[in-house]
Design goal:
- Strands 3-2-1-4-5 form a five-stranded parallel beta sheet, sandwiched between helices.
- Strand 4, helix 7 and strand 5 form a beta-alpha-beta unit.
- The chain is globular and about 35 Å long.
- The longest helix has 13 residues.
- The protein has one domain: Rossmann fold (3-Layer(aba) Sandwich), CATH 3.40.50.
- With 132 residues, the chain is an alpha/beta fold.
- The model has no long low-confidence stretch (mean pLDDT 92).
Length: 132
C-alpha cells in the first residue's frame, strides 16, 4: 500500500517521539508499505522552523536526507495537485495540509495523519491518534 505521511508524523518519526501513534509506527515499519513524503512538508518545516515555531525545530536538510536514506520517496507538488485543491471543501485553511489531501487523491495514496480536520475530507485518509 502507498502512504503519504503528513508533516507532524514525519517529524515525530524522525526524532523518535513517543507521540508517534502506534498505528503510524506499524505503517512505517511494514515492509509492504510504500512511504511518501511531500515536498510541501519539507517546505512547511523550512518556513516554520525559520519562524521558531514549537515542534518544528529541526534541520530541514537533515530531515529530508534522512527520509530519503530510510526509503521514503519524495513527492513533488505538481500543477495537477494545485488545481485539485480548488475542488476541496473548506474544511481546513492550512495550504500545506490541503495540498497533502490533493496529492493523496491524485497519487492514489492514503494520507496518514493525526489531524482530525484532515480526516473530515472525503478521500484516502487514515486518522491516527497521537500518543499522549
Amino acid at each position: 500500500m502507498t502512504w503519504l505521511i503528513d508533516t507532524h508524523l514525519l517529524l515525530w518519526a524522525a526524532i523518535g517521539s513517543a507521540r508517534l501513534p502506534r498505528r503510524a509506527r506499524e505503517v512505517l515499519e511494514d515492509e509492504g508499505s510504500r512511504l511518501l513524503f511531500s515536498s510541501a512538508s519539507i517546505w512547511e518545516v523550512a518556513i516554520k522552523s525559520g519562524r521558531d515555531r514549537p515542534g518544528f525545530d529541526v534541520d530541514v536538510a537533515r530531515l529530508r536526507r534522512g527520509l530519503l536514506e530510510n526509503g521514503y520517496a519524495e513527492l513533488p507538488i505538481t500543477g495537477e495537485h494545485a488545481v485539485l485543491t480548488r475542488s476541496l471543501p473548506r474544511l481546513h485553511a492550512d495550504p500545506f495540509d490541503r495540498i497533502l489531501v490533493a496529492q493523496a487523491i491524485a497519487e492514489d495514496a492514503t494520507l496518514l495523519t493525526g489531524d482530525t480536520a484532515l480526516a473530515g475530507y472525503d478521500g484516502p485518509i487514515e486518522l491516527v491518534r497521537a500518543a499522549r
